[in-house]
Design brief:
heterodimer, A: about 140 residues, alpha+beta, three-stranded antiparallel beta sheet, about 35% helix, about 25% strand, B: about 260 residues, alpha/beta, five-stranded mixed beta sheet, 10 helices, globular, binds iron/sulfur cluster
Chain lengths: ~140, ~260
């Protein structure tokens, strides 16, 4: 019997509302606002209320896809990261580091955003860092 | 309380008990079963209220034979259960309850009501601490503009419907394309809120969860209280205690009530 409530944080926007995922008999069936969460105090917007839908969506990407000859091919994480790194190296060699930009997100944590800009500046060597809110 | 639940689970009086547990400082709903029976010692009653009855309806929908125990932390939980029984959403023979509240506890007073003192809201809108009589003290035009001010803040999150223990319709009128068009904000007002208010007549047990969940601070409870007043006065139906379904479950051919003007 798998019945539980799993506390989590809404990934849809930078507000970061606290939610509870409702797992009934092993199936994720609902999302509830966390009433005692300091950010949202028991309230959610329509996106947060429907989070369980995208988790269960058949359209959800569950593994990396690499575009080869115009088509997306499923691959493993290690492979995808290696291909990306190789392509980055090629591009930097040919066009310089400023030919690459890094877009960070409100949907990831502060620390992950920090890492992303560090990656842009220290690894790639560019100051082209921007945020999804300005797209 | 814990001893009782443990005994019920062990003896098979209930297959699952829905209560609360403190998880990382948040007291949240929790399922207790024979598999995690050692967690029963962590069963608590918190300040924040969730609709455990509504959770029970989801369990029952999947497993109609499952015996479910529910912690009742407030008086209105009992009433919500009653409404769910009379509307056949739960089978009272399958449900065991433990009451963990004072008999005199009035749901109206143990809610964490937010500050109602914002001057603009006081001037333009209606505050949560009001009762229907306070609103009726305004003239008709004021009343209308104040309600419209409140409704215009709606972000159509559907939180009021989603959280409501007695909202269980498969097809919700608030998603009917002829009543509420998709993609507009605010939703059609006052239709959106009045449709819900009418549907809550004879169902709303005044638990206040909708108002707590409303990100726009709309005094929803006040609206539904007014509707409920009419249900009591005109139909003599007490939601949450009357043994039958509300009079609105019957579709008739003929209107038998006399029409009266809004402002007597
Ligand atoms: S529930 Fe809405 S406001 Fe809250 S984090 Fe999610 S998207 Fe943002
Ligand atoms: S007060 Fe609100 S949440 Fe509670 S029963 Fe009435 S409409 Fe539903
Ligand atoms: S909870 Fe408030 S904002 Fe959300 S749909 Fe209901 S009335 Fe509108």
């Amino acid at each position: 019997m798998d019945y539980k409530f799993v506390p989590s944080v809404c990934p849809y926007c930078g507000t970061g509302c606290g939610v509870l995922f409702e797992v009934i008999d092993g199936k994720l069936v609902g999302t509830l606002p966390n009433k005692t969460h300091p950010v949202n105090e028991g309230k959610l917007c329509i996106k947060g209320w429907n989070m369980h839908e995208f988790v269960n969506s058949f359209m959800r990407l569950k593994q990396p896809l690499v575009k080869t000859f115009g088509r997306f091919m499923k691959t493993e994480w290690d492979e995808a990261i290696k291909i990306t790194a190789d392509r980055f190296k090629e591009i930097i060699k040919k066009h310089g580091p400023d030919s690459i930009g890094v877009l960070v997100s409100a949907k990831i944590t502060n620390e992950e955003n920090y890492l992303a800009q560090k990656f842009a500046r220290a690894v790639i060597g560019t100051n082209n860092v921007d945020h999804c809110a300005r797209l | 309380m814990q001893a009782q639940v443990e005994q019920w689970l062990k003896e098979g009086n209930v297959d699952i008990f829905i209560g609360y547990k403190n998880v990382d400082g948040h007291v949240i709903p929790h399922f207790f079963t024979n598999e995690n029976i050692d967690e029963v010692k962590d069963l608590v009653v918190g300040q924040a209220h969730y609709s455990l009855e509504k959770i029970a309806t989801k369990v029952a929908a999947d497993h109609p034979d499952m015996k479910i125990g529910i912690l009742l932390a407030r008086n209105c939980n009992q009433q919500a259960l009653h409404v769910l029984y009379v509307w056949n959403q739960l089978n009272s023979n399958q449900i065991q309850t433990i009451e963990a509240y004072e008999a005199s506890s009035d749901p109206a007073f143990d809610l964490g009501q937010s500050e109602d003192t914002a001057p603009y809201k006081q001037k333009m809108g209606l505050v949560k601490s009001m009762v229907p009589k306070d609103v009726e003290a305004f003239d008709q035009q004021q009343r209308f503009s104040r309600w419209m001010y409140e409704f215009s803040k709606c972000i159509k999150c559907y939180g009021c419907r989603n959280i409501c223990p007695v909202c269980f319709c498969k097809e919700c009128s608030l998603e009917h394309k002829d009543l509420v068009r998709a993609g507009n904000l605010p939703p059609e007002i006052p239709v959106f809120h009045l449709v819900r208010a009418v549907h809550m007549a004879g169902r709303c047990i005044d638990c206040g969860l909708c108002e707590e969940a409303c990100p726009a601070d709309i005094p929803l409870r006040l609206l539904y209280r007014k509707v409920d007043e009419i249900v009591v006065d005109v139909f003599d139906y007490e939601t949450g205690t009357s043994p039958d379904q509300s009079p609105f479950s019957v579709l008739g051919e003929k209107v038998v009530l006399e029409l009266t003007p809004i402002d007597e």
